[in-house]
Amino acid sequence: MKIISVAGRKSPLSQVQIDEVYIQLKTYHPNVNFEKTLIETTGDLDLQTSLRNLGKTDFFTKEIDDLLLKKKCRVAIHSAKDLPETVAKGLSIVAITKGVDSSDSLVLKEGMSLESLKKQALIATSSVNREENVLLLRSDFTFQDMRGQIEARLELLEKGEIDGVVIAEAALIRLKKTELNRIRLPGKTTAMQGQLAILANQDDLEMKELFSCLDVR
After folding, report:
1. Which top CATH class is 104-184?
2. How far apart are the first and last CA of the chain?
3. Where are the domains of the chain?
4. How far apart are CA 150 and CA 155, in angstroms?
5. Residues 6+ apart with CB under 8 A from 176
6. Which residues are bridge partners to 166 per DSSP?
7. pTM of model > 0.85
8. Using 50, 70 and 90 to split pLDDT, how confident is the model at 60?
9. What is the pLDDT of residues 9-30, one digit of tens each?
10. pLDDT in tens, 135-149
11. How many helices (H) and strands (E) are present in the chain, helices listed first?
12. Which CATH superfamily is domain 2-99+195-214 in?
């Protein structure tokens, strides 16, 4: 059995994503096992900074990639959409997975519909693009920035503090929450949403070869 040290975020969604990569890899390399290191990144701890004008930075990846650069793990697994414009010097993307549904959904409380939402209903999202797509459904909606784990966002919806929340369909699928009342959003989504990125050190040819079976580029 070959043990591969893997780093990722501590969130429930990230842990499911790591398991997804593991299951896919096992179909090609059944004698491989993962040893996980799970941490909280700047993006997990800083819930005040809005993502609206942040751009493609390492907000959600830096601390994990630092572990990789320090050789404290062999690979890092990220949501592909969270990758910075350019990955850290010394690292290489060894695979981008096929992933799952790339769409966004507007999640509403059970029994609610687009028509039954009150005028100027409050929708939670920290994305300008998602906000624009929501407005294609109804132009009177108002918006509130919201960050944090998906479970916490859904809890605020249930409490009635917001009227709707935009969540990636891929996250709902991975967290087994597809029973939720939701509307698929029209319009474009973030590039590579629903896909996963696997990074290794540039000189780690073994990891590049091992994960090539999952690369769809």
Report:
1. alpha beta
2. 28
3. 2-99+195-214, 104-184
4. 9
5. none
6. 106
7. yes
8. very high
9. 999 999 999 999 999 999 999 9
10. 999 999 999 998 889
11. 7, 10
12. Periplasmic binding protein-like II (3.40.190.10)
